[in-house]
Amino acid sequence: METHPFLAPDFAVRWSQLVPAAVGPDITEALARAQRNLAAIAAQDLATVTFASTVEALERACDELGRAWGFVGHLNSVADSPALREAYNAMLPAVSEFYAKIPLNAQLWAALRAFAATPEALALTGVRQRLFEETMADFRQAGADLPPEKKARLEKLESELSQLCQKYSENVLDSTNAWELIVDDESKLAGLPVHAKEAARRNALAKGHGSEAQPKWRFTLHMPSLEPFMTYLDDAALRRRMWEGSCGVGATGAHDNTALVRQILALRQEKATLLGKPHFPDQVLARRMARDGATALHFVEDLHARVGAAFAREAAELERFAAERAGRPVGRLAPWEIGYWAEKLRQERYAFDEEALRPYFPLERVIAGLFEVVRRTFGVQAVERPAGAAEVWHPEVKFYELRDEKDGRHLGSFYADWHPRESKRGGAWMNYLLTGEPQADGRLAPHLGLICGNLTPPAGDKPALLTHREVETIFHEFGHLLHHLLGEVPYKSLNGVNVAWDFVELPSQIQENWTWEREGLDLFARHFETGAAIPQELFAKMKAARNFRAATAAMRQLSFGKMDLELHLHPERYAAGDLDAAIKSAIADYLVPTEPAAPSMVRRFGHLFSSSVGYAAAYYSYKWAEVLDADAFTRFQREGIFNAATGADFRRHVLSRGNSEEPMALFKRFMGREPDLNALLVRSGLV
Ligand SMILES: [Zn+2]
User: Fold this and answer.
1) DSSP characters for 422-485?
2) Which of 482, 519, 538, 642 has its CA 20 to 30 A from that of 374?
């Protein structure tokens, strides 16, 4: 008998069976099954269509494919190998094309529209109505209503866009990799932290520069090399060379992205016009909280106005500080001086070394503390399953069960994979593998998810000691995970994290707040040797340093958000002439004034141009979600950060509700009103 391990429906996933050789046959089979399901929906008699035969059938049609492809994608992230990569890339085009064609399938759309005209459709309520409306909107937004020749143009345009974006992103990567800075005089590296210097030495050796006896140091434009260099290196001339290198990314010779930016903007505008929207942001944001480009732009401009004065103060303060320290008249700083002097000012003002916190954050205690926080707040209990109780994809992976504290119900299970490996991609993330469906008693079967990170590993006989930023990351990703595991929505596509992009970071970012509260930290932050809590003086420094140059940090995000929206709302202004000058005039009062002026980020801004949509027209979402989380957390601050009733409300109105209703309605049910910008300004020390 033929077996298809990737299509096995078991909750106890048999990772040992999910081998690269099975990817091709299993995904091919899943595509065929999904295709048959869709064909059956499309071929039905339009006179007898029902909710079950259209909307619900469509919801289920690609279940197996979605689940199986999810496993492949996940393994691609945590167990990379040449064989798996090849198997993944071999199936990727077929899978993407399959999904892209669904909303353009005229027969399917006819079946849905036939259902939309029935009395049953008009009488729908609650989550069934939501599923119906979301399905119709998915089709419309993707062009289902267009006449055949426009559909054909749309398909062509999407494929052109994805090629242009791929090229843009290759140009960024290739020009980043093409640049290097080799230093052979160690005295020029004064100021640089030991770990950065050591990394540069090893990098040089690996590239054949220098030797153990006569070392050289190689620096690149990748963040781990660039960032400490620009922040700590005393030699301003070298910092300037590094800065000039970074300005060249995506901007010179064969790697110049200028023309690509213009083509991408033009195609996106054409797509919006085809789909009946005035501008690309209106098309992208139609179903997000912001709704349209004008609202998103207003949000950015409003925040700009509120932080503008503090931003100007911070810039002037840094100019004075640098002048005093360097013994020169006060004046504009050069772009390669900002990070350096800001760090000097931070050190002088707070004498705070983030490394001093590490001993208080041993990983095991942090995890236990996180579980205690969510137990108190949301009434759920996470318990580790003994090693060997379940198969995992790597021996380091742990497996947990999440239960409701009240009735012991098994809400879901999750894997945790914390430390870096060569076969694992960078960063930290949450993902889901299975979404439970309603059972006979009406409750959902347990969900299955995972949380992955690249946290500091244990060193020698010391436990893994984390930075506070890493602690925040764990809490953040666990917030996403709770959104999935606590979901109570009976339709998978509406459950958990499948919500509007400018809402999805609320459950994750709000969780970070507990790591900044004394009461929260005291639950778990204990010195790994002495068991002492974080000394009050250190805690005070950590809190104070949090908001150092907060207006500048906020303004940087706002400048990206503003540039993103300007480019996509007015592509014609950037279609010819000097691209940098045009952008600069649109965002001049969002930029730290420097001498010389810095060119814009537009040619190396992967968020906006590395994929067909990505963060395009949506960069503002970062700040938008911060507004939501800062505001929602004020209720916990008022009522107690471990107040179980407040936590239960958050669980009832937000964490369990997925996309079963408009996000604004969910937010308002929790807060009793619309979001208030002010909470974010208060948290950032800007009012
Ligand atoms: Zn997140």
Assistant:
1) TTS-SS-EEEEEE---B-TTSSBPPEEEEEE--PPPPBTTBPPB--HHHHHHHHHHHHHHHHHH
2) 538
